[in-house]
Amino acid sequence: PRRGATAGVRLGYGYETLSQRNPGLIYVGVSAFGERGPYAQRRGYDLLFQSISGILGKRRTPEGVPISSGIWISDASAPMAMAYGVALALLVRQRTGRGQRVETSLLHMALAMQSVDMVRVERESSTGSSVDFASQALYSPYRCQDGKFLIMVVLNNQQFAALCRAIELEHLIDDPAFDDNLKRAQRSGELRELIEGILSTKPREEWLSILERHDLPAAPVLDRNEVFDHPQVRDNEMLTFQEHPMAGQVEMFNVPVRLSETPGGLRRPAPLLGQHTSEVLGELGYDAARIQQLRDQKVVG
Fold first, then answer.
1. Tens digit of each residue's pLDDT (9 = 90 or more) over 231-274
2. What dihedral angle (degrees, nearest 10) is formed by the CA atoms of 65, 70, 71, 75?
3. Given the DSSP bridges, would you call strands 239-244 and 248-253 parallel, antiparallel or unpaired?
């Protein structure tokens, strides 16, 4: 859980105090809900950020109960945003010699991860449709004969025609009831029933092969363990291995941004609790005797 940054100010190591001693300081601050407002001093968890940002309310059961995204959206995105912010601050310091405060909140990142959806304009076109296209038949997962799921994305008439040919419903291509996205969305129930029945007649891999031959965007819906072994993930080295002293071999995501001259990599596994206490204190100027004294007093461990 994270609260606001006022504790640092009370203890005397807020940005205003430290920057006076070191004008080049780049000071990083991540709060839960932001520094102001009624939630500023509350403890924050990812599901709470998803709730307030609208993510939790996007998907619901048939009974209307909200469904979690299933991933830690704020917790995973905030470090990437802060790394970018620090890189910008370093560039500015290189040019001006001045440091600055770099901050965000986990709630703000939950909003930022919805950059396409979280837009509201003063005057919306009256010709628009209120249909939620993302929940329609042509954007939905389907169960195949072997019990496995696939998903297709049909965005335009050309792709709809490809789908009709792939699943042998060519008569719908020129049907005026399905000749644009809005009509297809409005008759989503009919389409869903047709597609469900047809896709249930063959196993998933066979359908994926057929859809690929018709150049239709589609993919398998993989469970967690299947992702690790998917050839697209493997061939692009998106995962890597680490040896951990307690967990053994650990497979995890590789560096997602690759630089041609300085590609980087994962050099060591996640540390154990307190593993680097002596190293950190040594960098701060504590000698071995003082570090041992702190250990004996159980100040550190």
1. 999 999 989 998 898 889 989 889 888 888 888 888 888 889 99
2. 40
3. antiparallel
Residue 266, phi-psi category: left (phi > 0), alpha (psi -120 to 50), beta (remainder): beta
Calpha distance 11→295 (Å, rounded): 23
Helix (H) or strand (E) holding 239: strand 239-244
pLDDT value for 14: 86
**Amino acid type, 72:** W
- The predicted pLDDT at position 68 comes to 85
Q: Hey, which bits of 9-138 come out as E strands?
A: 27-31, 101-105
Per the CB < 8 A criterion, the answer to whether 142 and 151 are in contact is yes
Residue type at 112?
A: A
What is the CA 59 to chain-centroid distance, rounded?
16
**Percent of the chain whose predicted confidence (pLDDT) is above 70:** 93
Q: CA dihedral defined by 201, 205, 206, 208, rounded to 10 degrees? A: 100
Helical pair 204-213 and 157-166, crossing angle rounded to 10 deg: 130
Under 8 Å between Cβ of 242 and 252? yes
d(CA 47, CA 32): 12
Which region, left, alpha or beta, applies to residue 168 given φ > 0 means left and ψ of -120 to 50 means alpha?
left
Q: Which letter, b or e, does each residue of 95-124 get, where b requires 16 or more Cβ atoms within 10 Å of its Cβ?
A: eeeebbbbbbbbbbbbbbbeeeeeeeeeee
Residue 45 CA: distances (Å) to CA of 30, 37, 179: 13, 17, 45
* Average pLDDT value for residue range 118-142: 72
Spatial neighbors of 76 by CB under 8 A, at least 6 apart, are: none
CB burial of residue 189 (10 Å; 0-12, 13-18, 19+): exposed
Using CA atoms, how far residue 265 sits from 232, 240, 253, in Å, is 20, 9, 10
Q: Which of 81, 130, 89, 84 is nearest to 109 (CA)?
A: 81
Give the closest residue to 271 by CA, choosing from 250, 294, 293, 240. 250
